[in-house]
Design a protein that fits this description.
Largest sheet: 8 strands, mixed
Number of helices: 23
Number of strands: 23
Radius of gyration: 26 Å
Strand content: 15-25%
Helix content: 25-40%
Distance between the termini: 56 Å
Shape: globular
Length: 662
């Protein structure tokens, strides 16, 4: 009776879409806009239209390695960097005392301005429809996706579905002993979609993350803290800043002039409106903090056994910090504004799931927060994720054609990791619809390539976070040369506007011609390039410099010449392994036919189904001897047997993560 009633009220939406995106967080927005820009009729489904692009945790974009991801997104034609530039209230370049490979931009954002701008971009994007409904299950037939069904009984049909549900799958919020269903505070969880994914044959795990309390500005004693100002001029994310700030210029040369501190005055950015960058503040915990945490540890659901999900290693709660680092007297805390028109401050480095009454006392043990007033309590959230080894390098699932996953559902943490996956999934969704070659970024090509390869090859048993240490080619993959690496590709795919690509080509030609000039021009017995290689020499101090060159060009020239030997060595290493790294493995290969493979290797290769020999070498449990057997088998050209889409079991031993940076 119930089933008959449900079928009778089923409503099939009259318009069929090419691509449906489920979830409108950072991954969903990038996927939806990319798909729509590439000409696909796209639908973005979200439980709450007012939460599109919401920053559930820290209102900041970028940081170490994450800033690389944002600049790569921008170089390919994505939206995160542009939105961050237009809504930032503080901009800084991190690690400036270290080499260029590990420097990275970071922006403190106006939380609501960022969210509203992304919502507006989705609403005005051609080929993109945005609707408020909660997805209940995925429609599929014979191993191919066909659309989605919502809890209202609406069926939306499509050729491709991209799931970007973040922390909402069976989300459970914890504040002390109190538990409630939710993907984040104030928003409902998605409690039926997990079962739909399992029915498709996907294996799911359980992760945990958390967020700190928010406190009122007037209750903070800033005289006890150290101000952390922004950099001048602001180090922006977007390579196409002139387009953002509506500067009218008559030529490409003018567009490439260096940025200056007053550039925001002629645009509609948040920084232009407020007139100056906002400070963040550094403070620290106290001995009282440690003693109070230790005395009340049994009240934390993380240690009482209530929370079962695995938490992030590199963003631990204050409970975890006290327990893991018992010999450390103090822990650094950052007090960061949530926006330009709010007095709400984010207590960075102080996430917790303690009961509210404990939080009230605990926050007041922080230096400068002795009278702090909590206006939003901290909480932890448990949620389901899909083991990412069940995806291929396009982020399409192996069990269902046309079904893509992106963002925290794949086991990552952070807005930037989510947006990077969303962009790739959106592009590849469009390529799937159009029967075109998918976009697969290599490890030597982009941090995005490292991120996705790590996920689909190694898997993860804890929330994955990007670090520079994960990238073996980081000297080549700097944040400042992301456009040189990826903008041609963004143009070929069709996502980067032609005008932006023309500006990039102009910049690239300027860099090339200046390097050539420096190598050919001599002062005395030395070329200008040889002089520039000296440790104490900078381009701006170089005799015979070209002062008319834009700052971005001068910096690229200086880096290219100073690190020429190291970069050449890294390029040679990449070329040396590329022949084996890029050797394709047929998708039809039956590993049971390959002689001499160990049982574990046969099992892992069958589950993960690497597309190249390079990917196979990075699978835990596959030895160099196994790789040798596989290469010999492929060279001999033995026949293969097609493997049909099927349920992929996940063995936790097949998942591993890098040590990263603690």
């Amino acid at each position: 009776m119930g089933l008959a009633l449900r079928e009778s009220i089923m409503f099939v939406y009259p318009e069929k879409y090419d691509v449906i995106i489920v979830g409108a967080g950072h991954a969903g927005v990038e996927a939806a806009i990319a798909s729509a820009k590439l000409g696909c009729k796209t639908l973005l489904l979200t439980m709450n239209l007012d939460s599109i692009g919401q920053m559930s945790c820290n209102p900041a974009i970028g940081g170490l390695a994450k800033g690389h991801l944002v600049r790569e997104i921008d170089a390919l034609g994505g939206v995160m960097g542009r939105c961050a530039d237009m809504t930032g209230i503080q901009f800084r370049m991190l690690n400036t005392r270290k080499g260029p490979a590990v420097q990275a931009p970071r922006c403190q954002s106006d939380k609501k301005a960022y969210q509203f701008r992304l919502k507006w971009q989705c609403e005005q994007q051609d080929n993109l429809s945005v609707k408020q409904e909660q997805t209940a299950r995925i429609l599929h037939s014979d191993g191919t996706v066909g659309g989605v069904e919502t809890i209202l009984g609406t069926r939306y049909l499509s050729s491709v579905v991209v799931i970007t549900t973040g922390t909402f799958l069976q989300g459970l919020l914890h504040v002390g002993e109190s538990k409630q269903s939710g993907g984040r505070a104030g928003d409902n969880a998605s409690n039926s979609l997990s079962d739909s994914l399992r029915q498709l044959g996907l294996s799911l795990g359980r992760f945990k993350t958390g967020t700190p309390p928010r406190i009122l500005k007037r209750s903070i004693d800033f005289t006890k803290t150290a101000p952390q100002p922004g950099d001048t001029p602001p180090p922006l994310f977007s390579f196409w800043w002139d387009e953002l700030f509506h500067m009218e210029h008559s030529s490409t040369t003018e567009r490439s002039k260096p940025r200056n501190a007053n550039q925001f005055k002629s645009c509609s950015s948040v920084l232009a409106r407020i007139g100056k960058q906002r400070d963040c503040y550094i403070t620290h915990t106290t001995r009282e903090t440690r003693e109070f945490v230790e005395a009340n540890l049994y009240r934390s659901p993380l240690y009482s056994g209530m929370i079962k999900g695995v938490g992030p290693r590199y963003c631990p709660s204050i409970e975890d910090k006290i327990v893991r680092f018992r010999n450390k007297e103090f822990h650094q805390v950052f007090l960061e504004p949530e926006g330009s028109e709010t007095d709400e401050f984010y207590v960075n480095g102080f996430s917790t799931s303690f009961p509210y009454e404990i939080q009230v006392i605990l926050v007041r043990t922080i230096t400068g927060c002795e009278n702090a007033e909590i206006i939003r309590p901290a909480y932890a959230v448990e949620y389901d994720f899909v083991y990412p080894t069940q995806l291929d390098s396009t982020l399409q699932t192996k069990v269902c054609c046309g079904l893509f996953l992106a963002g925290q559902i794949n086991g990552t943490s952070g807005y930037e990791e989510a947006a990077a996956q969303g962009l790739v999934a959106g592009i590849n969704a469009a390529m799937y619809v159009k029967h075109l070659t998918p976009l697969i970024l290599r490890r030597d090509q982009a941090y995005i390539g490292v991120l996705i390869d790590d996920l689909v090859t190694k898997g993860t048993l804890e929330p994955y976070r990007m670090f520079t240490s994960r990238c073996e080619h980081r000297l080549m993959l700097r944040h400042d040369n992301a456009d040189l690496r990826l903008s041609d590709l963004g143009n070929e795919v069709g996502l980067l506007p032609k005008a932006d690509h023309a500006r990039f080509v102009f910049k690239r030609d300027k860099i090339s011609s200046e390097i050539q000039r420096l190598n050919q021009t001599k002062i005395g017995t030395h070329t200008l390039a040889q002089l520039l290689r000296r440790p104490d020499m900078e381009y701006d101090k170089l005799p015979g410099l070209d002062a008319s060159l834009p700052e971005t060009v001068r910096k690229q020239v200086e880096t290219a010449i100073k690190y020429e030997g190291y970069i050449a060595r890294q390029i040679a290493e990449v070329e040396h392994v590329k022949l084996i790294e890029l050797k394709q493995i047929p998708s039809t290969l039956d590993y049971n036919l390959v002689p001499s493979l160990r049982f574990e290797a046969r099992q892992k290769l069958t589950k993960i189904r690497p597309t190249t020999i390079g990917q196979a070498t990075r699978i835990s449990g596959v030895s160099p001897a196994d790789i040798g057997c596989l290469i010999v088998w492929l060279k001999r050209g033995f026949s293969t047997t097609r493997i049909q889409p099927q349920s992929v079991e996940v063995d936790e031993d097949s998942c591993q993560t890098d040590g990263g940076e603690g």
